[in-house]
Amino acid sequence: MKKDFLTLEDLTAEEMHALLLRAADLKAGKDQSACPLIGKSIGLLFDKTSTRTRISFQTGIYQLGAQAIYINTKDLQLGRGETLEDTAKVLARYLHGIVIRTYAHDTIEKLAANADIPVINGLTDLHHPCQALADMLTVWEKKGGLKDVRMAYIGDGNNVANSLLEAALLTGLDLVIACPQGYEPDKKIYERVLSAGARVRIISDPAEAARDADVLYTDVWISMGQEREIERRKKIFRNYQINGKLLSLAKPGAVVMHCLPAHRGEEITDEVIDSPQSVVIDQAENRLHTQKALLERLIR
Ligand code: CP
Ligand code: NVA
């Protein structure tokens, strides 16, 4: 049976561990000549802009021997009224997998339900699981493990925060999320991972979250699709910035993470993102290695 990757919880803790080990091997250059996906075609359906997700998937797919077909969904007949169900069924006759970036999470659920090929979530309004995979590899590399590593996520309880909550459940990461009231992560996800034993907390004070953290993480205050809320969000999130003062509260060897793209001067200062403690470029690189490990697992 085909396997999708719509949220991080489509993997068990053991599968996630194995996937990170495999990604580390691929990164180290093991099996460099292996092309397990030779002759296959993978569609990249994007409703939103992307630098890292699109290019890392396209490159990784090529390195595994397959071809990537990038499709701006505006160019599909979907825009002229063809249903998502028909689109999914037809694409499954040509392709061996689909990576999709879109708005509503139920769009990818519907796509996956109708396509008899693996569907990979390249970001929805609710989840960004491919990002969380790369993030976990990065923390592992920088901190020597994941269990009990203290991560403070400062900012909007968005798709990235939701996937980090699921990552905490699968890895034992000790995650504190500091966000303004009313901008918390998805309640259902939070309550589910908490009751399943994840070490997660949601608070509102960024300083309390940052104190003694091993990792400080942030993301934009305004996600794709929220452009109408720019002015209001800029006011609400003003104090949720990773700057030198906040970083000084973390452990001396703490690392700073950001999924990128960053809005410098908003959620993070130049001083911090360009400092030696920032690992954002390694994090972006790890998208490539973790997604190759994921594709190897899913595409048949
Ligand atoms: N982090 C991330 O998903 O970046 P892109 O939006 O550039 O793909
Ligand atoms: N939360 C951001 C992540 C971008 C990679 C967004 O959805 O726009």
**CATH architecture of the largest domain, please?**
3-Layer(aba) Sandwich
Shape: globular
Report the CATH superfamily of the largest domain: Aspartate/ornithine carbamoyltransferase
SS-based class: alpha/beta
Computed over alpha carbons, the radius of gyration is 19 Å
Overall mean confidence score, pLDDT: 97
Tell how many strands the DSSP assignment holds.
9
CATH class division of the largest domain: Alpha Beta
* Number of separate structural domains: 2
Spatial order of the strands in the main sheet? 7-6-5-8-9
Number of helices: 12
Each distinct ligand: phosphoric acid mono(formamide)ester, norvaline
Which bin fits the share of residues in helices?
Answer: 40-55%
Termini, distance in Å? 10 Å
- Major sheet size, sense and barrel closure: 5 strands, parallel
Topology order in helix (H) and strand (E) letters = HEHEHEHEHEHEHEHEHHEHH
Low-confidence stretches: none
CATH topology of the largest domain: Rossmann fold
Main attributes of the structure:
300 residues; 4-stranded parallel beta sheet; 14% strand; single chain; 2 domains; alpha/beta; Rossmann fold
What does this molecule look like?
- The structure is a single chain.
- The chain has 300 residues and is an alpha/beta fold.
- The protein has two domains: 8-127 and 284-298, Aspartate/ornithine carbamoyltransferase (Rossmann fold, 3-Layer(aba) Sandwich), CATH 3.40.50.1370; 132-280, Rossmann fold (3-Layer(aba) Sandwich).
- It contains twelve helices and nine strands.
- It has helices at residues 13-27, 52-63, 84-94, 105-114, 129-143, 159-171, 187-195, 206-210, 230-236, 244-247, 270-273, 280-298; strands at 41-46, 67-72, 97-101, 119-121, 150-154, 174-178, 199-203, 215-218, 255-258.
- Helix 2 packs across helix 12, helix 3 crosses helix 4 and helix 5 packs across helix 6 (159-171).
- The longest helix is centred in the last third of the chain and has 19 residues, at 280-298.
- The radius of gyration is 19 Å and the shape is globular.
- Bound molecules: phosphoric acid mono(formamide)ester and norvaline.
- Norvaline is lined by residues 123, 158-160, 219-220, 223-224, 259.
- Residues 50-53, 123, 131, 259-261 line the site of phosphoric acid mono(formamide)ester (CP).
